[in-house]
């Protein structure tokens, strides 16, 4: 496998600059399938190796994770705005263990991968914000809908009370491309054909689960600080890409992120509001950004073809 490697690099906390003496070592790579593998379609999209496979214990500083992607699959991930590929493309020279002219060309043309389609980054950050720092307004709106639906005949369908359904912040009514009415409450979607009795249990579960988490977060309890630091990192990275059209590693906010990872801040007073603020700014930046809506897929398809044509020369 090593002879077909286009790039091999240190990844994870070592790349971001948030590693500690206890951090394990992550490696990522990209390999070039042979012409025979391409013609027969028998190449693997990704290959993983972990020294801790089969153990119930978390990785220790001695453990190694190594994952390699085919060039085809890597470009798919990159054009889709997936975090792993975007991070890899910006790895600095000191993190690169094996390189090649192909990889250098990918890095030199990384601007053609940039787009507003950074949903993976934003989605992860938003999920963690909702999980630990959910705003009271969201819970209040969910409670408002629960109260209204509970007062209605449980056998009625959403369509039958469409005109009198509550609306407001975090609550909306829309029609999808198939002409189906969609009622959305705090991110949960219900089709107009669903009956009230079907919708209520889901809303009750949401209110109970996130309400409890919000209370715990306000007391700095039950927080996965590593996950929260990853969410903040994702938000910082998107902001940098949208504003500077580049991404520099190690991250300039690495010291702050490391302190968050170690749980050195109060979630309610510092980290939760910071995460909410970053996400709100991203949503504004994504609209105003002059980046294209999608990556230049035609360029990368040509790049892939040219790479294999060169193998015939």
Verbal overview:
With 313 residues, the protein is α+β, with helices and mostly antiparallel strands. It has 3 domains: 130 residues, 2-Layer Sandwich (Beta Polymerase, domain 2); 81 residues, no CATH class; 83 residues, no CATH class. Helix content is 48%, strand content 14%. It contains 12 helices and 8 strands. α7 packs antiparallel against α8 and α9 packs antiparallel against α10.
Q: What topology emerges from the helices and strands here?
A:
Layout (H helix, E strand, L loop, with lengths): L4 E7 L1 H4 L8 E7 L3 H6 L5 E5 L13 E7 H9 L3 H7 L6 E3 L2 H8 L10 H15 L2 H15 L20 E5 L5 E5 L2 E4 L4 H23 L6 H20 L9 H8 L5 H22 L8 H14 L3
Parallel strand pairs: 2-4
Antiparallel strand pairs: 1-2, 1-5, 3-4, 6-7, 7-8
Helix pairs in contact: 3-4, 6-8, 6-9, 6-11, 7-8, 9-10, 9-11
Give a short account of the largest sheet: 5 strands, mixed
Low-confidence stretches: none
CATH architecture of the largest domain: 2-Layer Sandwich
User: How much of the sequence is in beta strands?
Assistant: 5-15%
Number of alpha- plus pi-helical segments = 12
Oligomer: single chain
Distance between the first and last residues' Cα? 22 Å
Mean pLDDT: 85
User: Which bin fits the share of residues in helices?
Assistant: 40-55%
Radius of gyration: 23 Å
Q: Give me the side-by-side strand order of the main sheet.
A: 3-4-2-1-5
Give the beta-strand count. Answer: 8
Q: Tell me the structural class.
A: alpha+beta
Order of helices and strands: EHEHEEHHEHHHEEEHHHHH
Q: So what's the CATH class of the largest domain?
A: Alpha Beta
Structural shape: globular
- Number of folding domains? 3
CATH topological fold name of the largest domain: Beta Polymerase, domain 2
